[in-house]
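Quick log. Single chain, no ligands specified.
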Amino acid sequence: MGRELTRLGEALRAALSRLPSGSALASFPIWTEWADVVGATIARHARPLRLRRGVLLVEVDGVEWMHELQYLKAELRVRLNKRLERPAVREVFLALAGTTDDASRASDPPRRA
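-> predicted structure:
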């Protein structure tokens, strides 16, 4: 029964430190609304992995789709930024599935370590 009391401010600081940063939260729609923004067909073949310094890494499941999406990168960037209501994505980088060393999966939103 020797439970140690913690001040509310300390508990809140600890809890808030585990949350994603403000910019990561603001970019959350990239993951939650991906299919709505890019369309169901593209969403079946391409998944966002991470957004870092304005570069969105998108994993594509085949070379045919990678080739096709090369032509659509600018349009996808515009659509994503419109949905985010800010210019968060300055570049879309495509990677063939299985070739990235990124541990996060497509459906996982950004997390703070």
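The first strand starts at residue 46 and ends at 52.
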